[in-house]
Amino acid sequence: MKDDVTTDLACKELVEIITDYLEGTLPERDRARFDAHILTCPPCREYVAEMRTTLQLTGRLTVDSISSSARDELLRAYRRMKDSST
Questions:
Q1: What is the value of pTM for the model shown?
Q2: Where are the domains of the chain?
Q3: How far apart are CA 44 and CA 14, in angstroms?
Q4: Alpha-carbon gap, residue 55 to 53, rounded angstroms
Q5: What CA–CA distances, in Å, run from 53 to 32, 48, 56, 72?
């Protein structure tokens, strides 16, 4: 029987828990599985790097740093998306 730490992590599961991983809130056992997976899966390793970069870049955005026209367009797009899902 495999130990929980060595139980393989599927790519789909990695995508589902990446936020917890990047925020440092993933339980130690799951973090170990996550780390083991990205060592052997280049696409997931690239995905993690892209998510880190995205978070770093978007973390710099503030309401004041976005032009009013861009903000309005984003709000319209969000409302269209929300309306289409209901």
A1: 0.60
A2: 2-85
A3: 8
A4: 5
A5: 22, 9, 5, 25
